[in-house]
Amino acid sequence: MTNTQLWFRGVRPSKFRHVYGLPTRKECCYTDISVVRSGNDGNFCAVNPTFLAIVADTTFVVIPIATTGRIDFQCCKVIGHAGQILDLKWNPFDDHTIASASDDCTIKIWNIPEGGLVNNLTNYVTELVGHKRKVLHIEWHPTASNVLLSAGFDHTVCVWDTGNTERPLLNVIDCHVDMIYSLAINRDGSMIATTSKDKKLRVIEPRSGIVVSEGICHLGTKCSKAVFLDNGRILTTGFSRHSDRQYAVWDQHDLRKPLTQEVIDSSSGIVTPYYDYDTRMVYLAGKGDGNIRYYEVVDEPPYVHYLNQFLSGQPQKALGFMPKRGLNVHQCEVFRFYKLHAAGNICEPISMIVPRKSTLFQSDLYPDTLANLPAIGAKEWFQGRNVSPILMSMKTGESIMEVSNGKSNRNSIESKIQRTHSIHLANGNQTNGGTNTNGHTVSISNGTDKNHQQQQQQQQQNGGNYGSNLTNGNNNNNNHSISVKQQQHNSLNKENEQLDNRKSDNNTKKFAFLSQPTIPDYRPQTIIEKSQKTSTNQSTKFHQLQAIFGQQTTNHKDIANLQNNLLSNSRNSSRNSSLENINLLNSENELRKAFNKQADEIKSLRKTLNVSEKRVRELEAEVKRLQQQLKQHQ
After folding, report:
1. 280-301 pLDDT, tens per residue?
2. Where is the composition biased (Polar residues) (predicted)?
């Protein structure tokens, strides 16, 4: 019994089991883009909620995210590199700042103007020079501002401070002995992971360059990729010794043996992993493949559960993904790819959607996600401090820091108002302009100032009745800030009330529908075969006609009986049969003619039958006569 229970576990519950990929219509894609035709596996597409950047050999185009359809081939580009661009990354804290890594051994930081490019952009903000060979990968720090990490073909990893124009290079990590295949950074930026051509996976502390752990990753010679999961785990993709594509999950503190390792398939394209910290889903997309597989990550073995795959007939050259703050929460969109087609100059958005009937905000699908605010400065981070990233609400769009600051400011304002209100009550018996025990002058409105009364009425309409109004000139700024905070607070309350009203309206409609009385249906539910039903109806009609018109003396009685039978049978018959019976009674003359015609035909048939029988008898008599003659001759 125990073995059976261990074997049969049933269906694993998951709210992401039915996630599906939704491709975009052609008119909503980005077409006629001069996509780079290089064979590298770099990141040729970068997206944020404002712009889409696509590499075009030594330049790259920047398109506003809302400008879809056909893109002019002479559109404005970012020009400045002398070699091919190998990687693009938007600054997570500034939607108008982008970094580009090139074959010319440099990294350039660009500032895109508001509304997009009007002319070709040739002036960069910062140029980072430190690699001796081409720069393959770049990554922005997820919590520290202006911190960039880069990996080059010279087997080094550089840590940059892009805000420092004099000495931007903070550290150089030279622990690798061969080409670096991938560069990943964890959630708080305290560790980085690299895979290299020597088949090793390394976890490195970026500020000191100390290798925390290393181990053999995948035994294949082709490129391998790595991405950080949560809870101190790393997922890698690569090739086995027999060139099978596979993925593996590792503990970042012990890389001697993987926690789990599975074979994907036997294709040859390099698989790139994309991890979503909010939904704990990992997406595996192979270069040259037409599908995107997605899995769910859990804390127990086997650590990764296969969910489904998005299938497409067009192979992909590269993929970019939208940050979580740019998704459509009303469509239950949990991830969005921007797919560069390998054949054709098309960039196609692909939305990963959880099927839900409601269009309201789904709090279980959208926990607080990364905000576009840095949690720490570059100098402070390089001195050794690790800070968790600042989160923002997907429902309101406000960061947690702003909400906490707003609450603290509101509490301080309310405490000031309470203190002034207590002063007002303590000096209630004094005249206007009197002085309290602390020496502060408090003026009490006596109702003669009309402007003051109008301001008080407006504050009461906005829900900001915080006690008596102070007219001292030293408190005007405080009163203005209080009114602004009150208006913001009231707008939030109105939005919440509207949502509550919508929910209550929906509930009342549901209850009203359910409270309606149900009308029972007493019609018979038995279904008779068509042939049986047709033969039964025909025989019944024939007998009814014969009973009515066969005997002229009992004609009226039979009609009355037929009417009674029809009325009694109408309760158990359908509407069509009742209409046929009523038409039968209304067309009595036509039925009489038909019956007479059939009777005449029967009579004629009987006459012919009698003639044929007579002829048979005559022939039989002739045969007997001939037989007797034959006997006599013998």
Report:
1. 999 999 999 999 999 999 999 9
2. 480-491
Pick the closest to residue 388 from 542, 188, 136 (CA basis). Answer: 188
- Quote the CA–CA distance of 153 and 103 in Å, as a whole number: 9
> What pLDDT was estimated at residue 445?
38
* Helix extents (H) in 383-475: 400-426, 450-461
Give the amino acid at 326.
Answer: G
Give the pLDDT confidence score for residue 634 in this predicted structure. Answer: 73
CA dist 594 and 602 (Å) reads 12
81: left (phi over 0), alpha (psi -120 to 50) or beta: beta
Alpha-carbon span 361 to 369, nearest angstrom: 15
pLDDT of residue 554: 45
Question: What gap in Å lies between CA 190 and CA 384, rounded to an integer?
Answer: 9
474-516 pLDDT, tens digit each: 444 444 444 545 565 566 566 666 656 655 666 666 666 666 6
Task: Annotate 472-495 with DSSP letters as a single string.
Answer: -GGGHHHHHHHHHHHHHHHHHHHH
Q: How far apart (Å, rounded) are the C-alpha atoms in residues 282 and 181?
A: 19
The one-letter code for the residue type at 526 is: T
Give the residue-averaged pLDDT of 209-223: 95
Distance separating alpha carbons of residues 622 and 628, to the nearest angstrom: 10
pLDDT for res 396: 86
470: nearest Cα among 432, 517, 438, 521:
432
Helix H or strand E segment including 591 = helix 588-633
What is the distance between the alpha carbons of residues 428 and 437, in angstroms, rounded to a whole number?
A: 13
- Find where tokens 């709210």 sit: 15
CB 506 within 8 A of CB 498: no
Q: Are 590 and 545 in contact (CB under 8 A)?
A: no
Q: 171 exposed, middle or buried (CB, 10 Å; 0-12, 13-18, 19+)?
A: middle
574-601: pLDDT as tens digits: 455 545 555 555 567 777 788 888 888 8
Domains of the chain: 28-280+340-349 (2.130.10.10)
Which pLDDT does position 397 carry in this prediction?
Answer: 80
Order of strands across the sheet that contains 169-173: 135-140, 147-152, 157-161, 169-173
